[in-house]
Amino acid sequence: MRVVLADDSILLREGLVRLLAEEGHEVAAAVGDADRLIAVLERAERTEERLDAVVVDVRMPPTHTDEGLRAAVQIRERWPDVGVLVLSQYVERRYATELLTDDSEGVGYLLKDRVVEVDEFLNALERVGAGQAAFDPEVVRQLLARSRRTDPLGTLSGREREVLAQMAEGHTNAAIAARLHISQSAVEKHINAIFEKLGLTGTSGYSRRVLAVLRYLGT
């Protein structure tokens, strides 16, 4: 894949450059702020240069608040074919759900601690670059803990919650079946039950899967 990195930490940025190169990926650019990140994508658009994914920190200069998030949302709007993997030091619920608002395809959210788990980081990046979703299990766990306090999902069974948690991480039905050691048909039955219990059986226009995940995240 051809990847763009955006993080104000030089050590992390250079470490990722070396890691991705060793794994056979090409780093098209590595920058330290959101403005330069957007400039890289604009230049790639003008020159018809292919980019597969962007890895971006949530907090970058000048204010270290949400520059990376705003850049990620802009990239999703202007270049929907480019996958976006967001890195964050903490679980920031608003940031995770904002990226899911329209479409979860090609979007990922990982805690920075997960970067040291090389296989997990690379797997998430490759999934995002392939147009899939990849959400950190710890992010999902914390969002679920909050949703239990704020969102009436009590009608879901334990297994249905497990299936929905896997959906929130971006796994396909086949992957969910393998991870939970159940059949794919059982996964499909659980998902249909989730849609029914969340009142999504008659929904049209938006993906019921995305809406179910949004409900799960407490939006």
From TrEMBL:
Domain HTH luxR-type: 149-214
GO biological process: phosphorelay signal transduction system; regulation of DNA-templated transcription
InterPro entries for this protein: CheY-like_superfamily, NreC/VraR/RcsB-like_REC, Sig_transdc_resp-reg_C-effctor, Sig_transdc_resp-reg_receiver, Tscrpt_reg_LuxR_C, WalR-like
SMART domains per the UniProt record, alphabetical: HTH_LUXR (SM00421), REC (SM00448)
PROSITE patterns in UniProt: HTH_LUXR_2 (PS50043), RESPONSE_REGULATORY (PS50110)
Example of a GO MF term: DNA binding
Gene3D superfamilies: 3.40.50.2300
Keywords: DNA-binding, Phosphoprotein, Transcription, Transcription regulation
Domain Response regulatory: 2-127
Superkingdom: Bacteria
Sequence positions bearing 4-aspartylphosphate: D57
Name assigned to this protein: LuxR family transcriptional regulator
Phylogenetic lineage: Bacteria, Bacillati, Actinomycetota, Actinomycetes, Kitasatosporales
